[in-house]
Amino acid sequence: MSRSWLNPLVLTLLLLLAARAVLGDGAQAVVRLSAHDPGFAAPLWGLVFAIALCGFLLGAAVTWAAGRRQRQRYAEACRRCELLERELTSLRNLPLDAPAERP
């Protein structure tokens, strides 16, 4: 019996519990960029959301950059395929009684 549904269910429940804890907490967090900076106060859920968003965007950028080589190979394969299709079309249009040219 497969329990492949159990892991996503448990993960979803844990994420909902964490979201409830963060959103239910009205605490303010003070962010200071240096020791002499007075900083600014923001809700904890906002900081957690901002950090998660930055991580998501960084992961998306890294994934997109890693796929560059595959996109280049795909574009080259498409160009070769179009060239071969044009050559096949020109060969189909040749008369049958004409002698074939040999290089």
From TrEMBL:
Query: What highest taxon heads this organism's lineage?
Result: Bacteria
Q: Which UniProt keywords apply?
A: Membrane, Transmembrane, Transmembrane helix
Which residue ranges run through the membrane? 40-66
**Name assigned to this protein:** Lipopolysaccharide assembly protein A domain-containing protein
Supply the source organism for this entry. Magnetofaba australis IT-1
**Taxonomic lineage of the native organism:** Bacteria, Pseudomonadati, Pseudomonadota, Magnetococcia, Magnetococcales
